[in-house]
Specification:
Order of helices and strands: HHH
Number of domains: 1
Number of helices: 3
Shape: elongated
Length: 76
């Protein structure tokens, strides 16, 4: 395992970004459930819930580039 040294400000910025992403994901889930309760599949709802749990525990997702992010969201 490699160790990376980051300035404290950069580390705090990463934590802040992760928290904002988690909050956005929670809001997205609430909106989707409100608008399409009968149309959303249980499998999709469970995936969003699992992602939310991992982010809450500090386990994030890492992507190498924008295309990986795009593929991730399309796979949901």
């Amino acid at each position: 395992m490699n160790t990376v040294t980051l300035p404290k400000t950069k580390y705090l910025q990463i934590l802040d970004t992760q928290e904002k992403l988690r909050d956005d994901l929670i809001n997205l889930r609430k909106i989707v459930f409100h608008l399409a309760q009968d149309e959303i599949s249980l499998k999709y709802a469970k995936r969003l819930s699992n992602i939310e749990k991992r982010l809450s525990f500090g386990k994030g997702l890492s992507f190498k580039n924008k295309s990986e992010i795009k593929r991730f969201f399309q796979s949901l």
